[in-house]
Specification:
Layout lengths: L2 H16 L19 E3 L7 E2 L7 E2 L20 E6 L7 E4 L5 E5 L2 E5 L6 E4 L10 E6 L5 E5 L2 E5 L4 E4 L10 E6 L5 E5 L2 E5 L3 E7 L8 E6 L5 E5 L4 E5 L2 E5 L9 E6 L5 E5 L4 E5 L2 E5 L10 E6 L5 E5 L2 E5 L4 E3 L11 E6 L5 E5 L2 E5 L4 E3 L11 E7 L3 E6 L2 E6 L2 E4 L11 E6 L5 E5 L4 E4 L4 E4 L16 E3 L5 E6 L2 E6 L5 E4 L9 E5 L5 E5 L2 E6 L3 E6 L8 E6 L5 E5 L4 E4 L8 E2 L8 E6 L5 E5 L2 E5 L4 E4 L10 E6 L5 E5 L2 E5 L4 E4 L10 E6 L5 E5 L2 E5 L4 E5 L5 E4 L4 E6 L2 E6 L5 E2 L9 E6 L5 E5 L2 E6 L2 E3 L13 E4 L5 E5 L2 E6 L2 E5 L10 E6 L5 E5 L2 E6 ...
Antiparallel strand pairs: 1-24, 2-20, 3-16, 4-95, 5-6, 6-7, 7-8, 9-10, 10-11, 11-12, 13-14, 14-15, 15-16, 17-18, 18-19, 19-20, 21-22, 22-23, 23-24, 25-26, 26-27, 27-28, 29-30, 30-31, 31-32, 33-34, 34-35, 35-36, 37-38, 38-39, 39-40, 41-42, 42-43, 43-44, 45-46, 46-47, 47-48, 49-50, 50-51, 51-52, ...
């Protein structure tokens, strides 16, 4: 791993510990005595680092309000920037002498006037160096200092001025600030420490080359000594113009994150992974799990009135009284909870800001604060005690105030509900749509944002976004894909007009719909249930179950009975906490059908006879009870309790006293009865292994000679029968055969109609269902819940969808699918794409296929590598040339083969391809950018034209110019004049860019880590 990558990772871990975190909590330690502290042996003489001889830089002039001028000699066109961001959460607070409160949010800083309730947000277009803010501090002279990823910004009440590496800082990313007693400002950056005396910058310390040097925390003690935490390498101590470095090699902590000086003058140092350190009279002591401190990062430190220490961790709060450690009890609700800040309130109570809201310790125990608003139940991140107002709290909902046992929540700035965009498109009418990670689907009409819930109020799957991909295919709809499948959204009504209905894999047969609407299906060794408000869940019948569920029954009392193929019967009493229990006497039987009698008795069709439940127990009826054949397959009850029994030896009718039997001698096509159903006129329909017959009173009418396995009556009066060769359907009154619209030449078993009129069938391809007049199996239902990776309308108007497990085409109302068994590689599918000739191309990481004349053809790739190349993309330039990007380089289609076409030495992973007008092709990996024009390649090497950092998303605009993001360096723009750098100093929300999108009006939308920026170029 490179030094740059390591540094980014460590700084990220530090910020995580300082701001947002969630982890597992330790168990309480109780009041056990503390083991004696382990004392570090102090060096005889700590190493002293002389101050640098670097010439101080002069103070830059104030940047006028608005976007600062770019720090580049390249041409920058006249431009306009706007920033849309989420200012909902406040992670740090500071008070101004004018009574206002300033807070750090996910997208800059916010100022609240608590008297007028006016709220103002400051972002990059307002002059802030970046909306990625690390630290906020308000100086005694009322100037507001904000450390960001791109510089240190200062607000004097009228305008922002920014100081960056070019102005004398060791690095532009500022992580910590402290003003010393001599009024000098000390600034910790990702690469070292600087001092500002009001006029000049002086670099005090920089990390040796190749080593970590992020200064993540700073403190001036009452004795005037300055302490600085060096992430990854101990502490810096500045005293009387001498700088001492207590490095890890000298016994210092490797991951310090925060400081506290207690009333006795002891210095406490919280770390990310080295426990808690204390410095008294030149001697260091360390508290770890061995002494009673929980493992993991220390996230907050506070001193109580009595001088004891309170420590916040990622797993709760612990208290140190000088002798022993005590954690909050389980019932307090603080265990398993990440603590972000601790503060001693003006009332003398200790307060904790946590992921579960605000807690208060009143001296006897913790209390979860639940006030008159929803604020206390939202995550809380920071405190600011105010002598005149009360306790100010930065929360996920903005700023809140607790005073007089009352909570007040102050308004948030208007903005975006979430800027963590996963996809972005603009539809034909001009609306901009965002699929976000945490706020669902957002739409911007040019004036305001609206949250759309395409799937209704049903919750998304855990850790999966409701919408993750958007596809604008040029009509009056928008296709969305996410945790609930694929849907087509009508742009006018904002409602779904189509929703994929594919079922999960592994469903074996439909069983039952219970009174609460739950649909039950058999799966391997258990049951699957679908509830509209909860989705799918799976229940195991028994740990040692080795058979399939065949039938299920819900009784009038709400009990569930389940019959299996060889392991008998199971019962569930309806209690959600209970499990299915096996039933004695029928444990080894094949249970094929279950019905409930009029007085609560139950009947079970088994392979060994007719089971009967009379309340207390089951009994088994055999030949001695009147059965002419004990191999029972089907049961059907009349309203008066008369029971019809289908067996392998005929059809029996039991009226409660005696049996009547029907066989082939009475007109049945066969003696083996497999299923029974009532027709709409009350006639009895009988399915047999050699035909179907109907009994309308006393006369039998043969319907068909087809073998039938199952039967069910539909709401429209028709009868459906499953056969070994497909599905058949008959008019229930006339007996005429009707169309079934699918399930031809496929074995069909159990059938079920639900309360909403949908039909379900057991097939060899899994469970199928009747949708919109067609029967659909998994191979015929389209992409389903697995979602869509790519979508397009082809030149014939057919819809193509690439899903993780198949390619699907929707034509003339029906889906057709191709899967791995059809010869397509679906190990790592990437995209679908149509070329100028109307051919459909499918690209996977290990193969490329072309669809033409209803046939898929694999096109091999010629490679000198021993291993198969990894494919990452395909593109077509406007001269008709087809290009392919692989780990081994770039290739161009020649006839029916892909041949090497890139310059030598261009191998790499993660290629992006972007065609430009005039046959131009841009190609990029994380490490290299290339441009093909006029039959030659131009290579832009990192560190030359572009910064030496990973390359990110790129975009060719309609004017032919190219935009590309560079990690940590914002955007770079290429036109005929060459390269131009665009960063947060120009108005970009953050220098970390994740998506680029060009709107219809030519505006560029840039999704960053800390806001959504819109760049409107000059006309």
């Amino acid at each position: 791993m490179s030094f740059r990558a390591i540094r980014r990772m460590v700084i990220g871990l530090c910020c995580l510990a300082l701001l947002l975190a969630a982890c597992e909590a330790p168990q309480p330690f109780g009041d056990a005595p503390l083991t004696p502290l382990a004392e570090l042996e102090a060096p005889e003489a700590l190493p002293t680092i002389p101050l640098t001889d670097q010439e101080p830089e002069p103070l830059p002039t104030h940047t006028p309000s608005g976007p600062p001028m770019p720090r580049t000699d390249a041409f920058v066109p006249r431009q306009e920037w706007a920033s849309l961001a989420n200012h909902g959460a406040s992670y740090a607070l500071a008070g101004h002498s004018d009574g206002s409160i300033w807070g750090v949010t996910e997208a800059g800083v916010v100022r609240w006037d608590l008297d007028t309730r006016e709220v103002i947000a400051f972002g990059s277009p307002d002059g802030l160096a970046s909306q990625a803010v690390n630290v906020l501090w308000i100086a005694p002279d009322d100037q507001v200092w904000v450390g960001t990823e791109a510089g240190l910004s200062r607000y004097d009440g009228a305008a922002w001025a920014t100081f960056a590496q070019e102005d004398g800082l060791p690095a532009s990313q500022v992580l910590s600030l402290v003003e010393a007693s001599d009024e000098a400002l000390w600034v910790g950056t990702e690469a070292g420490l600087a001092r500002f005396d009001g006029e000049r910058w002086e670099t005090i310390w920089v990390a040796p080359e190749g080593e970590l040097g992020a200064i993540v925390a700073a403190l001036e003690g009452r004795d005037g000594v300055l302490w600085f935490a060096v992430q990854g390498d101990g502490l810096l101590r500045y005293d009387e113009d001498a700088l001492t470095h207590l490095s890890v090699a000298d016994g210092g902590p490797s991951s310090p994150t925060r400081f506290l000086e207690d009333a006795a003058g002891a210095l406490w140092v919280g770390t990310y992974e080295d426990g808690l350190w204390r410095y008294v009279d030149g001697v260091w002591s360390v508290f770890t799990a061995a002494q009673g401190l929980p493992d993991g990062p220390v996230t907050a430190l506070a001193e109580g009135l009595e001088g004891s220490l309170w420590v916040g961790t990622l797993s709760g709060v612990v208290h140190f009284d000088g002798v022993s450690w005590t954690s909050a009890p389980d019932e307090a609700g603080l265990m398993q909870t990440a603590v972000h800040d601790l503060a001693l309130g003006l009332d003398g109570n200790m307060w904790a800001a946590t992921d579960r809201g605000v807690f208060q310790h009143n001296g006897s125990g913790w209390e979860h604060m639940e006030g008159s608003t929803a604020m206390p139940d939202a995550p809380a991140y920071a405190f600011l005690p105010d002598q005149n107002r009360g306790l100010l709290v930065g929360t996920a909902l903005g700023l809140a105030l607790y005073a007089g046992d009352t909570w007040t929540v102050y308004p948030q700035p208007e903005g975006l509900a979430s800027h963590q965009a996963l996809d972005i498109v603009q539809t034909a009418e001009g609306a901009l749509w965002l699929a976000t990670e945490d706020a669902g689907l957002l739409v911007f009409d040019g004036e305001s944002w609206e949250v759309i819930s395409p799937w209704g109020e049903a919750a998304a799957r855990e850790d999966e976004p409701v919408v993750s991909r958007l596809f604008d295919l040029g009509d009056d709809s928008l296709w969305v894909s996410g945790a609930h499948g694929v849907g087509q959204l009508d742009l006018a009504t904002r409602q779904l007009i189509y929703r994929s209905r594919c079922l999960p894999e592994g469903l074996l047969r439909p069983l039952l719909q219970t009174q609460d609407g739950t649909l039950w299906f058999a799966v391997q060794n258990g049951l699957a249930a679908y509830r509209e408000d909860e989705g799918w869940s799976v229940t195991a019948l028994a740990e040692d179950l080795d058979s399939t569920v065949l039938v299920m029954l819900e009784t009038s009392e709400g009990a569930l009975w389940v019959g299996t193929d060889g392991q008998g019967l199971f019962r569930h009493n309806g209690d959600p906490a209970a499990s299915f229990a096996p039933v004695a006497n029928l444990q080894d039987a094949h249970v094929r059908a279950l019905v409930e009698g009029p007085v609560g008795d139950l009947w079970a069709a088994t392979s060994e006879g007719l089971g009967r439940w009379d309340g207390p127990r089951w009994s088994l009826w055999t030949a001695a009870s009147g059965l002419e054949d004990v191999d029972v397959h089907a049961l059907l009850l009349e309203e008066d309790g008369t029971l019809w029994v289908g067996t392998a030896g005929g059809l029996g009718r039991y009226d409660g006293e005696q049996w009547a039997w029907y066989t082939t001698a009475d007109g049945l096509p066969s003696d083996t009865v497999t299923a029974l159903a009532w027709g709409p006129d009350g006639a009895l329909w009988v399915a047999m292994d050699q035909g179907i017959a109907r009994l309308d009173g006393a006369e039998w009418t043969p319907i068909a000679s087809k073998a039938a396995r199952s039967a069910t009556a539909a709401d429209d009066g028709s009868l459906w029968f499953g056969t070994p060769d497909g599905l058949v359907r008959y008019d229930g009154l006339s007996g005429y055969e009707l169309s079934v619209d699918g399930l031809d030449d496929i074995a069909v078993g159990a059938l079920l109609q639900d309360a909403w009129g949908a039909l379900w069938a057991e097939t060899d391809e899994g469970v199928a269902w009747y949708v919109d007049g067609f029967w659909a199996t998994r191979t015929q239902c389209g992409p389903g819940r697995e979602g869509a990776l790519s979508m397009l309308y082809d030149q014939a108007g057919d819809l193509w969808t690439l899903a993780p497990k198949g390619i699907y085409r929707h034509s003339q109302g029906q889906w057709q699918g191709w899967h791995q068994e059809d010869g397509l590689s679906l190990e790592a599918p990437l995209s679908l794409w149509e070329d100028q000739q109307g051919r459909i191309w499918y690209v996977a990481a290990d193969g490329v296929a072309m669809f033409a004349e209803d046939t898929w053809s694999l096109l091999p790739v010629e490679s000198d590598e021993d291993e198969a190349p990894t494919i990452t993309g395909i593109a077509e330039t406007d001269d008709g040339r087809l290009w392919l990007a692989m780990g081994t380089g770039l290739y161009r289609l020649d006839g029916d083969q892909w041949l090497p076409a890139g310059p030598t030495g261009t191998s790499g992973a993660g290629w992006q391809l972007a065609p430009a007008p005039g046959g131009v092709l841009w190609a990029a990996t994380e490490e290299r950018l290339l441009r093909y024009s006029d039959a030659r390649w131009t290579v832009f090497e990192p560190g030359a034209e572009l910064p030496d950092a990973p390359l990110g998303p790129m975009l060719v605009a309609t004017d032919g110019t190219m935009w590309i993001s560079v990690e940590g360096h914002g955007l770079w723009h290429h036109n005929v004049r060459g390269w131009t750098s665009i960063t947060s100093l120009h108005g970009l929300a953050s220098n970390t860019v994740t998506h680029l999108y060009e709107a219809q009006d030519g505006a560029l939308w840039i999704v960053t880590s800390h806001g959504l920026s819109r760049y409107t170029p000059a006309p």
